[in-house]
Amino acid sequence: MTVRLLLAALALSASLTPAHGQPARPAAKTAPAAARPDLSGFWMLMRQQKPVDPGLVAKLPPNTALLDDSGAVEFVAGAFGGLKLKPAAREAAARWKAEDEMTVSRACARPSIVYATQGPFPFEILQGTEFIIFRYEYFDLVRVIFMDGRSHPGADAPHSKTGHSIGHWEGDELVVDTTHLEHATITNNGLDHSDNIHVVERFKRSPDGKTLMSTMWFEDPEVLDNNGARYIQWRSEPGQIYPYDCDPAFGANYTNAEKK
Amino acid sequence: MNRLSVVIAVAIAGAAAGSAAAHHSFAVFFDANKVISVTGAVTDFRFVNPHGEIGLTVQGKGGQTEQWRVETNSPSILQRRGWRRDSLKPGDTVTVEGWPSRDGKRYLRLLKATRGDGTVIGIPFDQAQQQ
Lengths: 260, 131
Hints:
heterodimer, A: Lipocalin, 9-stranded mixed β-barrel, two-stranded antiparallel sheet, globular, B: mainly beta, CATH 2.40.50.140, disordered N terminus
């Protein structure tokens, strides 16, 4: 789906009503329109990801490791921030080599939102009443958050790097539930999530409105014995999303680089 | 011809060094505890994702010619730090400081780039407010 189509859908969403004679969609679990916070805007990932918002972190379920790698920080090989890997996942991570990502076939392999959301790039929120669009600069990822009360599709529906997201408001927090994510990295060092990962995000503005604070929680029993989460925050500033348009020739140039 | 300048300049450990997330893992791929400096003539400058790239011809200590590749942040990030797609041209002399790859190749991750006249290009990584 192109950004242009998404924008058209967003424009419609503010006034969309069920056609006469058509079954109405289930009521969205939303706050009254007048009470909904406006999260729209251009959000730049903050270099400093601390301090975290204690209210959001307190809502994380038990048995969750809060990963300390949001933004600029990254884990070295073999470090997973408290995630407890199943044996097969640990063995796969041990086999993984950083150089393997530096090839023509892998240089432009897109991450899923599990890793991409905390990456060092801005994103834009376009907020309607029945849809909210997240437009990420990183790998040109675009998500549609359905706010119209629909459910996730069946398990056999196609999976993607952005998955299927449904949202609702809880007070001043946007809560987004995502499934149907295609397998991709969690920590960018050999640990991949499965196609059955389940993600729940919470977003809210800081009291001064200048910071967008969030948690991204995930469970993936095929890969992990516990759950994981990241705290991620962005600041509001003027700006625009640039095209990413990844060029895999980068991988070839690395492959051909001279040995000392 | 540019004179060789491959100098192990500074050993930097800590937050400033170990922080350059991108599509491939900085922490795994580069040595965050070492910064080296390379001076050479630009052969190509690619302002494309997932990383910009600078190709350099460098004269080695023994007089041999070495080809170095320098990986930068994403062009969109560089753009916000004052870089432009024509910031470097083939033949320009430039000194780059960066973190060496762990694989033994002549390959760096850019920290700072300085022209032959001493002008620093854009805002260096360790001075940037954003990523």
